[in-house]
Amino acid sequence: MDFFDLEQYIGIDEIEMRKHSVESLQNYIEQFMLNIPFEAIDVFNGNSITMDVETNLEKYIKHHRGGLCYENNFVTNMYLKSRGFDTKLISGYVKPPNNDWKEMDTHLSTIVSINDKDYIVDTGFGHFPSQPIPLDGQYIYDETDVYRIVPSNQVKNAYYVQMIEQNNIQYNQWTDLLYFENTDRTREYFDSRFDFTINHPDYAFKKILMVNKKTISGHNTMSLNHVTITTELGKEKIAVTSENYRELLKEYFGLDVTIPRLEGR
Predict the structure, then answer these.
(1) Cβ atoms of residues 255 and 249 within 8 Å
(2) Rounded distance, CA 254 to CA 248, Å?
(3) Is 194 exposed, middle or buried (0-12, 13-18, 19+ CB in 10 A)?
(4) Residue 257: partners with Cβ closer than 8 Å, 6 or more residues away
(5) Which one, of 36, 18, 132, lies nearest residue 79 by Cα?
(6) Phi then psi dihedrals of residue 251, to 5 deg
(7) Would you say 96 and 197 are in contact if contact means Cβ atoms under 8 Å apart?
(8) Cα–Cα distance between 265 and 104 in angstroms, integer?
(9) 87 within 8 A of 81, measured Cβ to Cβ
(10) pTM above 0.85, yes or no
(11) pLDDT tens per residue across span 140-163
(12) Rounded to whole angstroms, how far apart are CA atoms 194 and 105?
């Protein structure tokens, strides 16, 4: 599989990637997230998506779109494997804002091993660090937040990704974001959960609009009601209407796409 066009599109160097360094891995994550958003517009619109890598590369490069974890993270896994990184395709689930845990295996991600040290690499989560997070508990600082990974007390070889605001780190009240198992999975392992996540009428992507893209100074997020621009100076909210949503998608996410449920409301 040829990933040359992806490298050109997001601005990375194959020679640097073949050094298999933490620095080249971090640069890949940053460039991917700056150029390819996390977005669930197809699912929200009732359209199908796929885990086929070539189809998703065309979606990114030709149509300037992004995708969910099954799209973005699977492309990342296959790309890194093609450049000689030691990777695992892993499964887990995301903790939603109302704090209840959802179905296992509804999140797909990647672990990369460099010099006998494991890192989670995720380009399909939404708001997440644009750098690898080591599994040894090391703090990772990204924007105004701190991230770490801690082992589960109940399940062997399972972990939680946790986050806390830098200003609150002295209180040690971490929020669980993601549960995952450090077990290598096949692509076929995800088939049933892919179908559940994409097609079940009660799952989040069918009901809420989710778009997120990293920027040089922070990140942009879009819901049904607002675009939120987050920078080091704070947050700005712009109301989403049927008249302005397409321009907001273009300006803040580089997306040229229609969302029928926003039309004429």
Answers:
(1) yes
(2) 9
(3) buried
(4) 41, 65, 246, 249
(5) 18
(6) -70, -40
(7) no
(8) 35
(9) yes
(10) yes
(11) 999 999 999 999 998 899 999 999
(12) 8
CA dihedral 174, 40, 37, 124 (to 10 degrees): 50
143 Rama sector, left if φ>0, alpha if ψ -120 to 50, beta otherwise = left
**Across residues 228-239, what is the average pLDDT?**
95
Per-residue pLDDT tens digits for 16-74:
999 999 999 999 999 999 999 999 999 999 999 999 999 999 999 999 999 999 999 99
> What's at 9, amino acid-wise?
Y
Provide the token pair at 9: 């599109």
- Amino acid occupying residue 174: W
Is 254 within 8 Å of 40 (Cβ atoms)?
no
Beta partners for residue 38, in sequence order:
67, 212
Q: Are 122 and 145 in contact (CB under 8 A)?
A: no
Q: Calculate the CA 101 to chain-centre distance.
A: 18
Q: Secondary structure of 76-139 in the HEC alphabet?
A: HHHHHHHCCCEEEEEEEEECCCCCCCCCCCCEEEEEEEECCEEEEECCCCCCCCCCCEECCCCC
Cα dist. 11→57, 116, 128, 224, 229 in Å? 14, 28, 20, 31, 24
State the residue for tokens 């989403």: 240
The whole-angstrom separation of Cα 183 and Cα 231 is 36
Contact predicate 161/173, CB 8 Å? no
Rounded distance between C-alpha atoms, residue 260 and residue 46, angstroms: 10
Say if CB 182 and CB 92 are below 8 A apart: no
